[in-house]
Specification:
Chain lengths: ~375, ~375
């Protein structure tokens, strides 16, 4: 069904009818000029993310459900990165003519799946049309006890730098997706060339054969064998809420924290800048999955660069007092990769051979 | 300067360096993974708006500063429409290659101007590139005492329906802007035709004359004489915070409220639906400015339709108990336009001749 057949107000009604707030802090969700929330004895955390088609996502290889799931997880990750608990999201979406009602149904299904995972309520949003691509904005609202908030600015010299999970996998997943997309378009192009030639020769038998072949192209299956983890990390990232639980259970209070979205190098530099400190991280300590390593080799790419600058890992990068060294060592899935220094000592990676390389950040326009 | 010369992180630094939070509820603004707020003894209101180039705005006739001002005012209006006070905004912006650093400087100047008008802090956001047009999302966070929140759902039969300001002006402003844009493009087209002809004839004197004429086209001045109010209402809407002050001072508590963004008819229907009531409004009571009326005549458009369905008025539409009739009558700039009925009596406009017409809503896809 086309969106215009339904109309704006019926569309919003359809998309939001199943949404039942379950957080005590949600007083009123969707359906008025603003959501009404109450986080009386906590600080409120607010973070917003804009996802633009062709920049943050490509509808060639992500469907609307996964896209929504990813957008919601990314937005929640920012709240976790302050040591907070995500409670509500507000979702804006601008949709072009290609997008049908069923696509938005799937989008909201993805949102609901992501939200139910962390008991987050969808409390509002805005739906508009778009002349250009799809645009999605998610604002996530969370809460945290005043004393428990972890900023980027609290790192101290001698603190240990830790990172959860592993790095570079989402980036390598993207390389795989881009490669398979290129393979697909190449097949289409070659097919069209052959068909054109057959038509030019008026070779009816060949045309018939080719038309039978078309189904093969239409049912193109990308080759993800042995790359499943990478694809998952790219298309279905998970917000790192369990890492915080682990830390709380182990009675570890990070001194600074950020989520790894731009890449380890960029994000560590943010901590250093805000905390006015330097850092040393060890190349051989950076956690990397086996699939990431083999795929880097396959693509003839530098593994450390993928891990340092790939981005979209949505892991937590944090610092802990050196005294917590033993405590953190016992935690699964958390890796100690270096330490904080005084600011004047700069920000460096210590390579496997002992050489030091300055860390460089990469934003979206560099 | 191109944005890529500066890079993402320096760009964000440049845009946000002058931002100093001034609300006690803003604990930490821009610069971490999330803003930290504290609205301890109040309910929190959250509303989000997405503005897409070509849909909500046209850069042919609005500059970046005014665009930002308008977006911020629209977002704040939603908080006022709950009887709240806007306190913070979070701004996401997706920018294409056309947008330079100076454009973003101006955008942030517009945001700051709008925010300082209502003592609102800019506490965060997201900046990304865009392959397509400009996309802007503003989330506004406000506060309100629990007992003071006015929802859409509180209207009761016999309540009086009130609206602030006047209606239809922003819509007619848009018609003027569209007309002047068309005039401009027509001039450009005719000029290009003449120039092409002169080149075809190799008429050097004529080419020289035409090249002198080009400056006239380049300095095209749209004709807004006598339409200044309409243009202002379209390009520089103001959030209706003063209306709430008036009501508070007069000790009037609205039973329901909404902002007029989609048009009086749509928005009144929202109140009726949420409150499960009907309504009667009088055509001759709808407040309309003189410029709106004359311009409607000029464009041969129906004045009541412009006022009912034009939208973008950003006024407050609210209901008050019938006992407050006299109180509200003394207030400048607030108009009593009808009354609430039982649901079964439907939603009608009573025309000047006494005929009743059913109110119909218009969303963006109808």
């Amino acid at each position: 069904m086309e969106i215009k057949e339904l109309g704006e107000f019926k569309l919003i009604e359809r998309l939001t009818k199943d949404i039942k707030p379950s957080n005590p802090s949600t007083i009123t969700g969707v359906g008025d000029d603003a959501a009404v929330l109450r986080h009386s004895d906590k600080e409120i955390l607010v973070s917003s993310h804009l996802f633009m088609e062709g920049i943050q996502f490509d509808l060639t290889y992500i469907d609307m459900k996964h896209l929504a799931y990813k957008c919601a997880m990314v937005a929640m990750t920012n709240i976790f990165a302050m040591n907070g608990r995500p409670c509500q999201i507000v979702v804006s979406i601008g949709v072009g003519k290609r997008i049908k009602v069923i696509d938005l149904d799937q989008f909201y299904e993805g949102l609901r799946t992501a939200c139910s995972k962390w008991n987050v309520d969808i409390v509002g949003g805005d739906t508009t049309s778009s002349y250009t691509g799809l645009a999605i904005n998610i604002t996530c609202i969370g809460e945290c006890g005043k004393e428990d908030i972890v900023y980027r600015k609290g790192a101290q010299p001698t603190d240990i730098i830790c990172v959860s999970g592993d790095l570079g996998a989402a980036y390598m997943g993207l390389q795989i997706l881009e490669r398979e997309k290129a393979v697909y378009y190449q097949q289409v192009e070659e097919f069209n060339k052959k068909l054109k030639q057959a038509h030019a020769n008026n070779d009816k038998k060949r045309i018939e054969l080719l038309n039978n072949e078309r189904a093969i192209i239409d049912n193109f299956q990308p080759d993800f064998v042995g790359k499943e983890y990478l694809i998952d990390r790219q298309l279905k990232p998970e917000a790192p809420g369990e890492v915080l639980e682990q830390l709380r259970n182990a009675n570890i209070s990070p001194t600074s924290m950020i989520d790894v979205s731009d890449g380890l190098a960029s994000d560590l530099k943010h901590i250093c800048k805000e905390s006015n400190v330097g850092c040393r991280i060890y190349e051989d300590k950076i956690p990397i999955d086996y699939q990431t390593a083999t795929t880097c080799e396959e693509f003839n790419m530098n593994l450390t660069t993928a891990a340092l600058n790939g981005g979209e890992d949505y892991e937590l990068l944090f610092t802990i007092p050196i005294g917590d060294h033993a405590k953190v060592a016992s935690l699964k899935n958390i890796h100690q990769i270096g330490y904080i220094t005084e600011s004047r000592l700069g920000e460096y990676l210590i390579a496997r051979d002992g050489n030091e390389f300055q860390l460089t950040a990469q934003g979206w326009v560099e």
